[in-house]
Design brief:
By secondary structure, this protein is mainly α. The protein is built from twelve helices and two strands, in the order αααααααααααββα. The protein has one domain (10-328): Up-down Bundle (Formate dehydrogenase/DMSO reductase fold). 76% of the residues lie in helices and 2% in strands. The radius of gyration is 20 Å and the shape is globular. The protein starts with a helix and ends in a 13-residue tail after the last helix.
Length: 332
């Protein structure tokens, strides 16, 4: 297998891992005004993701770094053409991260409500925009002979991208509801499970429409298989939740996100950023790649350090695996 193929797969895996892990903490943030009926419940919700949310973002940083080093032309065209979308995502992540840190610095309910709004808005905006970004990458954008984006910001907000954003937002919210059910106790846990079932049902329609659109417009045999299994996993998650097996329902939404992401990258291959203006201007895994020497050095670095990073993050999740009990949180 060529090194360009290996690194395309590696970047796809990194983004997929980011969507699965960051997906549930985006979901928790989005659901704070819905499930957090009083201060202790909202604090419990934040505590479920407090030890891991910033670690989850390492997957994104690593994916961006790998893209920059392995496919510099892809990185340059994507980040210049999608500049405003990425700026808004970065702004949402910054506001959300600051809110986590500053929420507890004030004593008034108004102070906390303001930062809670930042957490919710930042989580929802980032989730929606990531869906739009991935959809536009698969759909393609107008590129000239120098691989420069020639479209406008509004061109990135097309129907396919907006449907992708809505799908990702709802899927992450469902994922977050099931995560809260597993990581909290009592009434908050029960309400999270019930909400997960309703959100999952609401997610099914746009998710099916988006994946069907993807397959018809851009898919291949491999993406078809992945899309079918992803849809079956989402349906299985709803059935398992209905039977009270919410742990398996959470696993099913994780599988759904993972397979849907994999299907999108398979539909993209062998391109990395198709050109809608002229197919000859499309970036693919060959003309966007770095030199073989660079890819070879990167491969050895990844072989050494990737297992260490994975073991450390796995250990983090194991340490903070216990449920957060609302009744044990002191009244503010």
């Amino acid at each position: 297998m060529e090194l360009t193929t290996i690194w395309f797969i590696a970047i796809a895996v990194l983004f997929t891992g980011y969507f699965i892990l960051e997906g549930f903490d985006f979901g928790v943030g989005m659901l704070m005004p819905v499930l957090g009926r009083e201060e202790r419940e909202r604090r419990a919700m934040i505590n479920t993701i407090g030890p891991v949310w910033d670690g989850n973002e390492v997957w994104l940083i690593t994916a961006g770094g790998a893209m920059f080093a392995a496919f510099p032309h892809w990185y340059a065209s994507l980040f210049s053409g999608f500049y405003l979308l990425f700026f808004l995502i970065l702004l949402a992540l910054i506001v959300r991260g600051v809110a986590f840190e500053y929420r507890g610095k004030g004593d008034t309910a108004k102070w906390r409500r303001g930062w809670d709004l930042c957490i919710t808005a930042g989580s929802a905006l980032a989730a929606f925009l990531w869906g739009a970004v991935v959809a536009n990458i698969v759909r393609g954008v107008p590129l000239d002979a120098n691989f420069d984006y020639t479209g406008s910001f509004w061109g990135l907000l097309n129907g396919y991208a907006l449907l992708g954003g809505l799908t990702m937002l709802l899927l992450f919210a469902t994922h977050g509801a099931y995560f809260l059910h597993l990581r909290t106790t009592g009434d908050l846990s029960a309400r999270s499970r019930a909400l997960g079932l309703r959100l999952g049902a609401a997610t099914a329609v746009p998710a099916l429409a988006f994946l069907l659109w993807t397959q018809i417009a851009h898919g291949n045999a491999v993406s078809l298989v992945l899309i079918v299994v992803a849809v079956l996993a989402l349906v299985a998650g709803l059935a398992l939740d209905f039977k009270g097996r919410s742990g398996w329902a959470f696993a099913a939404t994780a599988v759904t996100i993972g397979l849907a992401s994999a299907a999108l990258f398979c539909a993209l291959w062998p391109d990395v950023l198709p050109s809608t203006s002229d197919a000859a201007n499309s970036l693919n895994h060959e003309n966007a790649a770095a030199t073989q020497k660079t890819l070879g050095i990167m491969t050895w670095v990844a072989i050494v350090f990737l297992p260490i990073v994975l073991l450390y993050q796995g250990w983090t999740y194991w340490v903070f695996r216990k449920r957060v009990a609302v009744e044990r949180i002191p009244v503010a």
